[in-house]
TrEMBL record:
It comes from the Bacteria. PANTHER family: 4-CARBOXYMUCONOLACTONE DECARBOXYLASE FAMILY PROTEIN (AFU_ORTHOLOGUE AFUA_6G11590), BLL7811 PROTEIN. This is Carboxymuconolactone decarboxylase family protein. Residues 26-96 form the Carboxymuconolactone decarboxylase-like domain. Gene3D superfamilies: AhpD-like. Transmembrane segments: none annotated. It holds the Pfam family CMD.
């Protein structure tokens, strides 16, 4: 399967990618641990089947200090003992926020209450934005058939303003 278009070398695609990257820089200003952000992005990317994004976020999670065991168990986090209650709340938000078409209720009140129990308003705003942005990135990757396996940490640094 070959990629359909390289958005990074296309004028419009590069502009959109730059803006998505800069939104993610704003999200990173919140006091959410980088490793948690990567796990949330990894879970949404797994659900959406974006090989490129799975590559990016497994690599970045490892660089943020996550162990191979925890990274591998993200796909089965509900059946794992290695995640805290706060991480479970964030992963539930990622799943429910990603599976909007699959669930008539969107994010459940129970999940929202768990998120509110563990995170302050700025962290919640960052988590919600993170889920929205990774889903947008996943769609770009899946639609254009971006392949996993070639991510180079730091390759997006040139996109920042």
């Amino acid at each position: 399967m070959e990629p359909r278009i390289n958005l990074m070398t296309n004028k419009i695609g590069a502009k959109v990618s730059k803006r998505i990257y800069n939104v993610n820089l704003a999200i990173q200003e919140a006091s959410l641990p980088k490793s948690l952000q990567e796990l949330v992005e990894l879970r949404a990317s797994q659900i959406n089947g974006c090989g490129w994004c799975v590559d990016v976020h497994t690599t970045e999670a490892a660089l943020a200090g996550e162990t191979a065991g925890r990274i591998n168990l993200v796909a089965a986090w509900r059946e794992s003992t290695v995640f805290t209650d706060a991480e479970r709340a964030a992963l539930a938000l990622a799943e429910e926020g990603t599976r909007l078409a699959d669930a008539h209720h969107g994010v459940s009140d129970e999940t929202w209450a768990q998120v509110c129990e563990h995170y302050d308003d700025d962290q919640i705003a960052a988590l919600v934005s993170l889920v929205a942005m990774i889903n947008a990135a996943n769609r770009l990757g899946v639609i254009t058939r971006m392949q996993g396996g070639s991510y180079d940490p730091g390759m997006f640094a040139s996109l920042s303003d």
